[in-house]
Amino acid sequence: MARTTGRSTTHLTRRLVQLYVGLTLYGASSALLVRAELGLEPWGVLHQGLAELTGISIGVVSIIIGAVVLLLWIPLRQRPGLGTVSNVFVVGLAMDGTLAVVGDLDGLGFRVPVMVLGIVLNGVATGLYIAARFGPGPRDGLMTGLNRVTGRSIRLVRTAIEVAVVVTGFLLGGSLGAGTVLYALAIGPLAQFFLRIFALPEPAGPGVTVASGEPSTPAPPAGSGPVADPASGQAILPQ
Predict the structure, then answer these.
(1) Secondary structure of 192-211 as H, E, C letters
(2) Tens-place pLDDT, residues 61-73
(3) Does residue 39 contact residue 181 with C-beta atoms inside 8 Å?
(4) 171-184 burial, b if ≥16 CB within 10 A, otherwise e?
(5) Using CA atoms, how far apart are residues 22 and 86, in angstroms rounded to an integer?
(6) What are phi and psi of 74, to 5 degrees?
């Protein structure tokens, strides 16, 4: 019994470390994309646009938007986890902290590698915090909630949300560019790759199967109808 308890405690500790390291790296990677000045990820475009408009730091804007999106979970009857709430605060704080350390960059010789590093690091971060299984981020939960309530496909709901976010952010002064396009093309494969690397097996026990990084049930085909909410402590691919 003591040995089982010890394994469970170690497993939980590793999950917590993965969650907070992943969220911190996610904020740091977003900050690197800001410094590269070659285009941001979709929600980053909105955050930057609002930061330009209000004069508030982009990290604080990220926290505010995350909290507002989380409030939208209430009518959608979504259930947040530890990772959901942590996502709201840790990412924004890490972003502002990184921006305070990493100054402006001059020349494409510096900005292009930093852009690539930011995108790859974002994939690493996504794999870490999703594999920790402490719940989806606020924006992911908004997507799955709308999918369930409206009956529209995940693909359509996600596309609609991100197009609205990018257009709004761009109109407010957010940055679009090569980094935005490269991020859109690369983040899915990167997240899937690092999710497999950082996947954690469930503690052995009666009725418990060891996770392999693959879903336990077949994923619905692209463009299919509503999907079930992520189980408590699980998350889906990144925003």
Answers:
(1) HHHHHHHCCCCCCCCCCCCC
(2) 999 999 999 999 9
(3) yes
(4) ebebbbeebbebbe
(5) 11
(6) -60, -55
184 three-class SS: helix
Distance (Å, rounded) from C-alpha 104 to C-alpha 36? 8
State the average pLDDT over residues 193-222. 56
Contact 189, 127 (CB under 8 A): no
The tally of CA atoms less than 13 A away on the side-chain side of residue 211 is 17
Q: What's the burial of 158, exposed, middle or buried (CB within 10 Å: 0-12/13-18/19+)?
A: buried
Mean pLDDT across the chain: 84
pLDDT score of 236: 43
Q: How far apart are CA 86 and CA 19, in angstroms?
A: 9
pLDDT in tens, 78-135: 889 999 999 999 999 999 999 999 999 999 999 999 999 999 999 999 999 989 999 8
Give Cα 180 distance to the centre of its chain. 15
CA–CA gap between residue 47 and residue 59 (Å, rounded): 8
